[in-house]
Specification:
The complex is a heterodimer of chains A (about 280) and B (about 290). With about 280 residues, chain A is of the alpha/beta class. Helix content of chain A is about 40%, strand content about 20%. Chain A has a single domain, classed as Alpha-Beta Barrel (TIM Barrel), CATH 3.20.20.150. In chain B, the strands form three sheets. A three-stranded antiparallel sheet of chain B has the order 2-5-6. A two-stranded antiparallel sheet of chain B has the order 1-7. Chain B has a two-stranded parallel ribbon with strand order 3-4. Chain B folds into two domains: about 140 residues, no CATH class; about 100 residues. Chain B is mainly alpha-helical. Classes of the chains: A alpha/beta (about 280), B mainly alpha (about 290). At the A-B interface, helix 2, strand 5, strand 6, helix 4 and strand 11 of A face helix 2 and helix 4 of B.
Amino acid sequence: MAYQQHLLTGTGIGLRQPHVEHFMRGTPSIGWLEVHSENYLQENSKRRHQLRHIRNDYAVSCHGIGLSLGSSDPLNLDHIKSLKTLFDDIEPSLISEHLSWSSLDGRFYNDLLPLPYTSEALHYMVNQVNQTQDLLSREILIENPSSYLAFKHADMSEPELLNQLSQRSGCKLLLDLNNIFVSCSNMKTNPYQYLASIHWHQVAEVHLAGHTIKQLPQGEIRIDTHNNPVCDEVWDMVDAYRDKLQHIPCLIEWDADIPSLDVLIAEANKAQQHLGLTNA
Amino acid sequence: MPKEKRNSLAQLQAYFIKQLTLRQTESATDQEHLAESDSLTSLLVASHFSPEQLISIYRNNFVISLRELLEQLFPVTQALVGCAYFAQTSRQFIEDCHLTEPHLNHYGGNFVTFLRGLNALEHMPFVAQMAELEWHLDRISHIHYQPNFDFEGLAQIGEDQYMNLHFSLADTCHLQACTMDLIALHKDLSAPQTTNLFPGTGTGTGTGTGTKEANYQQQSYILVLQNQQGESALMPINHQHWVWLTGLRNGLTVAQLCNIGNTDIASLMAQITDWIALGCIDGFSLRTNT
């Protein structure tokens, strides 16, 4: 299908079901849209039909959660085939997945589980990403996860692993600043040190989102819930890296307790201001 | 497990999953939990939080996301059995029936099968029937369907060939026979409750204060379909229509339908025309006599 050409620049929002009708009836003022790939796999579904319609007016990126690239299970070729059909149909500007795993022995856990940051995991991920890119005939982006724990036998840091993964596989990076802040807060490390370690020329997309602070008897832990506005500390990170970030497509992610479209667009406009860009 | 073996990616993941699912397993003893907790401590970087607290964050994400999905798919079934029993059953389902796909598109269908197999619901088959109804209401609501029946092609068929016609049911149709009046029950449980659903049985949410006593104890036949607004809808059908529609679903020709329904072709064709107009029938084929 030949879609009108749209550039994926500036700030976009995640397309969520409560807002779809707004985009079916008009063209709300937003730079671009991101969808969760797994919600659009069924070819004869209303969602797929709606996405084709919306794709005519917006650049779209597809963000996946089901590839389970870090799992020691073999790649799920049926899933990759379904994804390729979706991508051939929708022609997304970007395709992304996670530095994580979510399945073992054929069972899926519907969450992004943590990888040990070891040479073995890096080597494994490079192979998995290479194979996936070959099967999809497309470059993919890999996103840094939110972490709540770390493995003792890790022999590199998360940014080191991401840099090497990108360098060796040719994939790009999706840098989620909220995830960096959540992980660094939980691991008692410095998010600015993390940002300074990143090879920025490999970053092709940025995510901004909100999170929740959970109070436990021993102290607080930050949980990546995507149900809140972006927090001040993450906006500070945006401000500090404005020069680099303003050249990279940026997304406001809001997946739970979804607000009205106006609130989401206002959050995207706030991002534009922090990035020193004009609104869509 | 020796440390070097546990640290390989595959072994580590197997171990992590064991931890993730351990607390779900009723058979795990306190000693097992304690031993596993010690092992976990040796794997993780020390923090303010216990290994179990950290693993439980992932466990909660996984279990809660699936439970919320089931609540979203089966609100009437939840109202029918009550929140506590639904939560307990959902949890059991999540533990016993593994998610085997990297998406959730078929997960609700498995829940219907699970409910059907529960001993506790053996004498309440209408619970699984309600879940089946809700699953198909949701499934049909997601299908992009634009009726495109070939009326011109049908007009080319001579009347002498009508007996050999087979009409196909659209994917947007689901037929269900129920031991109760599920449409009435669905309607009453979907609306703010003012009816004592099952007087004296203790079944249901029990939030109602009204005095109307409903009688759902009658066999019913239901057609779930997509209406012209693209929404899924429930339609009660009579026994004869049920026989004809299940016959169509099973590939019977007009001649075979006339025989099993003991009816004339004119009545059957009139009804088929109505179903075409409703979008229930999306095509036809001509069967050669064998």
